[in-house]
Design goal:
elongated, 376 residues, 12 helices, 70% helix, 5 strands
Length: 376
């Protein structure tokens, strides 16, 4: 049987083989009737195999390529053996690529597992994450050793840039938030102290609260959301752009080159920011005490200074140093181990901030317990 659709498009069925002959130019191929007629013929044919021959093809467009793809898929679903080896190489390659993708994948069946299997999987996953984190901390320790031996690959300009980002540029937001925290502490404390007529002790409450823990915590949270996220996003973007691979190819340790300057910058800036936060919090308490509680400035600062102990101050500074280490490690860790796409950068940034805050709270509890045990 032979059927001519047009001068360019005809087919022949013989001995169980349906042959489709293609010749000429198929640009702007939009003959709806010709397409429909051939689909109907394939649907009714008794042939077991369909062969596409395109030795005479001159040119074609994406519409024709899409049509051939649909014909091949339809024939395969009908159970026909399809051969398109005689098509031009470029068109054949395009069809190979299109047919290689399963455009309607079956839904994966959820495998029901027992509770012991779930616990085992979670335990193994936790162990792998913990081991990965410890290995990263080990690389940082080795980089510190190389630095103090003068063997680390660190540029001074990177350190200065990182210090500028997490130091002077963070000063305004730290000062503002700390001042408002001092105001809030004074308000909350005065509500209870008024019942005893002891409003003057608001100065002691705000001073001890800010210099011992609240100043460091507020700076830590601000820097985790500001600087830790920046570290993760910057290094994560370098991972996506394969810049970390380039450093490795050139023999430059990424931990030395990228992580050390950021850790040093936070180690230097965090204690200074904590001190500024302490005094801004005390200033916020003084604002409430002076203008709302009608405490004279001299009296307020007298009680504030009497509550200002060197031990409490140093405990707050120690918290700041610990928080600086945590923020820099978490930010750099999730940046270095970021995925290879843009979505991974966002996830790495989120994980860096969340992990930093969680670890800060955990270590705050540990440090507080140790201070209690040591009577500090």
């Amino acid at each position: 049987m032979n059927k001519d659709i047009s001068d360019l498009f005809n087919y022949q069925e013989k001995d169980g083989v349906l042959t489709l002959y293609l010749s000429g130019s198929f640009e702007f191929f939009d003959e709806y009737k010709e397409k429909t007629d051939f689909f109907l013929f394939v649907q009714k044919t008794t042939a077991k195999k369909i062969v596409f021959k395109g030795e005479g093809l001159i040119s074609w467009d994406s519409a024709f390529s899409s049509y051939l793809y649909k014909v091949i898929k339809f024939s395969q679903e009908k159970g026909l053996i399809v051969s398109y080896e005689k098509l031009p190489t470029s068109l054949k390659s395009l069809l190979d690529l299109a047919l290689a993708v399963d455009r309607k994948p079956e839904k994966t069946q959820a495998v029901k597992r027992g509770i012991l299997e779930d616990i085992g999987e979670k335990t193994i996953s936790f162990y792998q994450i913990f081991a990965k984190g410890m290995a990263f901390c080990g690389m940082i320790c080795r980089s510190f050793g190389n630095f103090f031996r003068g063997r680390a690959v660190v540029r001074g300009v990177d350190f200065v840039s990182a210090l500028d980002e997490c130091g002077p540029k963070a000063l305004l937001i730290v000062s503002l938030i700390s001042f408002m925290v001092g105001v809030i502490l004074a308000f909350v404390g005065s509500i209870q102290l008024k019942t005893f007529g002891a409003q003057i002790y608001v100065a002691s409450l705000v001073t001890i609260g800010m210099i011992r823990i609240m100043g460091a915590i507020m700076v830590g949270v601000i820097m985790a959301g500001r600087t830790g996220a920046s570290y993760a996003a910057t290094i994560g973007t370098m991972q996506v752009n394969e810049e970390l691979d380039a450093l490795k190819t050139m023999g430059i340790p990424s931990v030395d080159f990228l992580v050390l300057p950021r850790i040093f910058s936070l180690l230097i800036s965090m204690p200074i920011l904590v001190m500024i936060a302490d005094f801004m919090g005390m200033a916020g308490g003084a604002f409430v005490g002076t203008f709302l509680l009608e405490i004279s400035p001299e009296e307020y600062w007298k009680y504030a200074w009497s509550a200002f102990g060197l031990t409490n101050f140093l405990v707050g500074i120690f918290h700041g140093i610990v928080f600086g280490i945590i923020i820099s490690i978490c930010g750099c860790y999730y940046g270095v181990y970021c995925g290879r796409n843009a979505d991974s950068v966002g996830k790495a940034t989120t994980k860096a901030v969340v992990s930093s805050i969680v670890w800060m709270i955990v270590l705050t509890g540990v440090i507080t317990w140790m201070c209690e045990v040591l009577n500090i």
